[in-house]
Amino acid sequence: GQDKNMCSLNSVLQLLQNIPEFLTELQGWRDTSAIINELIKIFCQRNKTSQTSALEVRRLLALATNQPLNTGVQNDTVELFGYILDHTPSRLFCFDICYDYGFDINQASASASACPSCNMLPSSKSSSDKFLKLSLPAAGSFHLEDLIKEHFSSQRQLDHRQCIPCQEENPSSPSYPIKEQCKILTHPEYLLIQILRMNFERGKTVKNSSPIL
Question: Residue 212: beta bridge partners?
Fold first, then answer.
């Protein structure tokens, strides 16, 4: 119903209320936005026996994102949580990553996939993120540690990539495909991990309910 909290919003609030550093910083952000003030109000009630509604947080998020309530858009925990983190001056959850590029191990010549515009070979690029997104296999029971190891040991084949020196978009050669591998350069004290639990089957989105130990 309209007066109930969504499961995704509940999970975000429960996570944040168990991070002491975030709660301390939050008090310093008072009056910076209506959403921040409402979050402070909710967390001040967390140790009381009466139930607390996050309906006002939902309403404010709907206004800020220009999305009406209960459309499904706000049900994505990362979109919801990401918006909150993007509007709070906290580095508690930010980590730096880099992507290393290479060629298929069976390639004949590395120079075959050099950028046609500047003739430079693929080089690593770096960026910053707040979530580590892990794909969940379609079936079976899995350990979170194994999913993390698989994420960083696997290489993704690219159809195209942007050349870092000249910014041109280069298609990947069928004979010499470019491989991308992710690495974490620096990590925060709290690493937020999202398990991607949705599969696409016959044009429809289906939840993947495989258990994670």
Answer: 142
**75, two tokens:** 């049900």
Tokens of 77: 């925990």
Yes or no: say if 212 and 142 are a contact pair by the CB < 8 Å rule.
yes
pLDDT digits (tens, 9 = 90+) for 34-67: 988 999 998 888 777 777 788 888 888 778 777 6
SS3 letters across the chain: CCCCCCHHHHHHHHHHCCCHHHHHHHHHCCCCCHHHHHHHHHHHCCCCCCCCCCHHHHHHHHHHHCCCCCCCHHHCHHHHHHHHHHCCCCCCCCEEEEEEEEECCCCCCHHHHCCCCCCCCCCCEEEEECCEEEECCCCCCECHHHHHHHHHHCCEEECEEECCCCCCEEECCCCCCEEEEEEEEECCCCCCEEEECEEEECCEEEECCCCEC
Structure tokens at 54: 């996050």
Q: Are 147 and 195 in contact (CB under 8 A)?
A: yes
- For residue 78, the model assigns a pLDDT of 58
Torsion angle of the four alpha carbons 133, 134, 138, 141, in this order, in degrees rounded to the nearest 10: -130
**72: pLDDT confidence band, cut at 50, 70 and 90?**
low
The model's pTM: 0.68
The tokens for 134 are 């892990």
Residue with the larger pLDDT of the pair 101 and 213 = 213
- Residue 13: the pLDDT is 87
Pair of tokens at residue 7: 């499961």
